[in-house]
Design brief:
- The complex is a heterodimer of chains A (about 290) and B (about 260).
- Chain A has about 290 residues and is an alpha+beta fold.
- Helices cover about 30% and strands about 30% of the residues of chain A.
- In chain A, strands 13-10-9-14-15 form a five-stranded antiparallel sheet. In chain A, strands 2-1-3-4 form a four-stranded parallel sheet, with helices on both faces. In chain A, strands 5-8-6-7 form a four-stranded antiparallel sheet, sandwiched between helices.
- In chain A, helix 1 links the parallel strand 1 (about 5-10) and strand 2 (about 35-40).
- In chain A, helix 3 (about 85-90) packs across helix 4 (about 95-100).
- Chain A is globular, with a radius of gyration of 20 Å.
- The two termini of chain A are about 15 Å apart.
- The relative contact order of chain A is 0.15.
- In chain B, about 25% of the residues lie in helices and about 25% in strands.
- Chain B has helices at about 85-95, 100-110, 110-120, 160-170, 205-215, 245-255, and strands at about 5-10, 45-50, 50-55, 65, 70-75, 95-100, 130, 140-145, 155, 175-180, 185-195, 220-230, 230-240.
- The longest helix of chain B is centred in the last third of the chain and has 14 residues, at about 205-215.
- The termini of chain B are far apart.
- Classes of the chains: A alpha+beta (about 290), B alpha+beta (about 260).
- Chains A and B meet through helix 2, helix 3, helix 4, strand 5 and strand 15 of A and strand 1, helix 1, helix 2, helix 3 and strand 7 of B.
Chain lengths: ~290, ~260
Amino acid sequence: MSRRLGIFVDRKTLASAEQLTALIHCRDVAEARGLDVDFIFPVDISKIPKMDALFIRARTDPMNVTYVAAQMAAFHGIPVIDDPASIRICSDKVNMYSHLMKKDVAIPRTVFLSKNDLSVERVARLFDELGTPLIVKEPSTSFSLRVEKVNDISGFFQVARRFIRLSDWIVAQQYIESRYDWRVGVLGGNLLYACKYTIPSVTFKIQASVNGHVVYCGVESVPEHAIPPHVVRLGKEAATAVGSGLYGVDIKNNNGDAYVIEVNDNPSLESGEDGCYPDIYEQIVDHLLPGDTP
Amino acid sequence: MNHRGNVTLARASAPAAASTVQPAFPHPFPGHKGEKHLPAEVFVNAHRANGHHENGLLRDSLHVLEQDGVWHVISEDYSYKTEPYYTILSYELMGRDVRPASSTVLDAYVVPICLERARQAGIPVAEWGVSQGYVPLPSIIYGLNYFATSADFFEVRDGKKAKEVIAHVTNKGKYPFCFQKIPADAAIRSCTSIFGRTTGSCPAVAGLARKIYRVFNIPLVTLVFVRTKKGWLLSSLAPARYSRISGDERALLTAYLSRRELP
């Protein structure tokens, strides 16, 4: 009997034709490897124990239904990407940076602040410690939402008051200027792909709303031989500090020094990241269910 | 120049052995150079709360008890990204044996995960499902999204109310929700568990509270049950407010905080 791969999707977070095409491609790859594939929607969560592996392709957060899917798989001993621990760590920047810190992975200077620490004196000291401007992040930000650059104490408080409504702790971080971010895809501790996300000139983020319009970064897939070795090394280190699943590590490479900006679970794979790496899905399927290569 | 490891964890409590404390001071991240130890500052204050002199049972106050190398974090609410959640996380990152675990509190407050984990431990639980629109009647409905809390649940017995509630908990269809089909004659009951103990509950509920505590290790939590002819079924675990617990529950909790009772 064929083994079954579940692909967990949420039609509410499917945002583009490219995402749909990528899902179909993933299904085709798995079927070509002799697997039966079921798309699992939130209402189908009870089917997860019948799967042999689960690949989550929906927006992850410990408070939403994707985490329920990941935990259901874990409770039943089913291999899953993204696993619950990776979701917990990557969805929360306090947790994520703490794990990177623990493993001595290079990150920008970073401070966690409780809502009870938000005094003018503390924030003034923060600018002394981290420099000006600095970056303020709400811990569960994704797609560069709730990430702001601030230039002074007043600007800091404007942003912090907004973020503190969503989290008792926030993150303040040294600003590192760059024209592009490296995105290093890592699977099971090994390089899966790499690309450059070119920052739009009108913003400092890979995605931003500018004058009411969403501005996206450019994506350029880069072959392995053209990636600086220390960037690959740092990407692997960062991913391994989180777990052994699938991650997209964002790295700024500034004057030869590389810093991890964040580790993403459930990294985007449908925007051209795989241009130089056509077998990404084959590797993911083989990682989840080894031994089905035709 | 690389800046490695320059992170500060601001605010986490740091008890000396076998003491109750409130978090009120920052400490550096434990992995940070030269900062291996938590400060051992302790203060046990008698606060006046809700007309009673209590051992620190102020709204949002957080207490940590150490017993035999296990650190028990006591709070009204352990929700994601709250001060208690981050306190637990910081203890874990320091390698402490802390209870509840950060993963456990997330499991506890997301209803389907809570019920599956409890079921696997042999605790009878309400039959549940995830839906985006349909719900059998009668049912209990819980939100299942970033903004939902297990403290908010809705008993629906007719289609009109079900439609209103579903629109509310799903933000007009944006998110899925969790439902629990209940028998027509079922009743929903709740009680407070303090280190797995209840006050004034029947032996069946008291036994379930002990089992639930062994699974989740949450010192202070509201247990929500569905009472049926066949017995009690766990429906959810939810935060428990100091201001809403009974006098007996308050006395029991205070006994733990002042170490007259041990976890």
